[in-house]
Specification:
This protein is of the alpha+beta class and 149 residues long. Helices cover 49% and strands 13% of the residues.
């Protein structure tokens, strides 16, 4: 992995272009864009310079613990439930459309955390110590990330 950012006792290895490319493979085409209007297809067609800029943005977010304000907002759309009357309010369910770049960033964090948890769990098992529940850590982290939007 890349360079290391140090903040007191914490260390963060900067995301690499390989991690970004791997995360891009998992974006689902045809998904609606968030408030920034950037679709999955546009992101997947980014060239080398644009991908480098996105990587720099993600690393900046990770090292400063700050994300763009637009990523904290969502476009809420009402979808009609199948077979329901269009004139009744309860016939609709709200969905929140998040920015695709935020979803990509979140995926890279989750992959990194999952890999670290697996490595920690393996290390603990080899040392004979009780392994900390990685799934609990991941769920808690995800809840904190969602709350901060």
């Amino acid at each position: 992995m890349g360079n290391i950012m140090q903040d007191s006792d914490e260390q963060f290895e900067l995301f690499t272009i390989e991690e970004l490319h791997e995360a891009l493979k998992h974006l689902k085409p045809g998904k609606a864009a968030g408030l920034d209007g950037i679709t999955t297809e546009v992101i997947q067609h980014f060239g080398t310079r644009a991908r480098s800029w996105v990587l720099a943005l993600f690393n900046n977010c990770a090292t400063t613990f700050c994300i763009p304000k637009i990523w904290r907002r969502a476009r809420v759309v009402a979808l009609l439930k199948p077979g329901k009357d269009t004139k009744i309010r309860k016939s609709y369910r709200p969905i929140s459309l998040l920015c695709i770049l935020y979803k990509l960033y979140e995926r890279m964090i989750m992959v990194r955390m999952s890999n670290n948890c697996l490595r920690t769990k393996l290390d603990s098992a080899l040392d004979g110590h009780a392994a900390v529940s990685c799934s609990t850590s991941l769920i808690t982290s995800r809840m904190v990330m969602r709350r901060d939007k």
